Request: fold
Amino acid sequence: MAEDWAELWKLLAAVAAGALIGLERETHDKPAGFRTNILICLGAALFTVVSVRMADGGTVDRTRIAAQIVTGVGFLGAGAIIQFRGNVIGLTTAATIWVVASVGMAFGAGAYFLGTLGTLLATGVLFTLESAEDLIAHWRSIATFEVDFLPTNNVATLVERLVHEAGVRRKSWTVSKNPESVVGRLTVSGPAARLERFQEALAREPGVHAFRRL
Reply:
């Protein structure tokens, strides 16, 4: 009976940790939110408890079931990652799933200090480092433009001039021609203010028939 109560506390601790970490994901409307992180943490803890119980008193390796948690969590993380318009989305969510599972394993193994420390560190990273990411994005952002140029212009020279005047950096540039216009796809990087300056320059440029920011 005492052993059952001890394992109950392990599972409850895993639920609390998953809820705390999942709260940040839920408030930012991420795919793996409050309930998902609770269930991942609880499941990892439960698998670890079962693994230890099955191995007690026998010759079975107690780490065998727990080791498969990493594989299972890998599938969940892969499902959270998608590619959209050339950008990879969901890496933070996948990493959170991975960390939540490890926290659940720690509680399932009875390592309360380690599980609590992992929970606090993960929560701190998710809640406090977003402002740092925003600051980095402000100074270094990436934008892609699809631009219709008038065919009478020297497109390469025009693009180089606009990039230079706006103070941004050209990362990639592709162009295709048709009888009526020259269509270019341009990716530039730089501070957010300079990207806005580049966009305004495109809007004012007589040699640009139309453009859109992707």
Q: What stands out?
A: The radius of gyration is 26 Å.
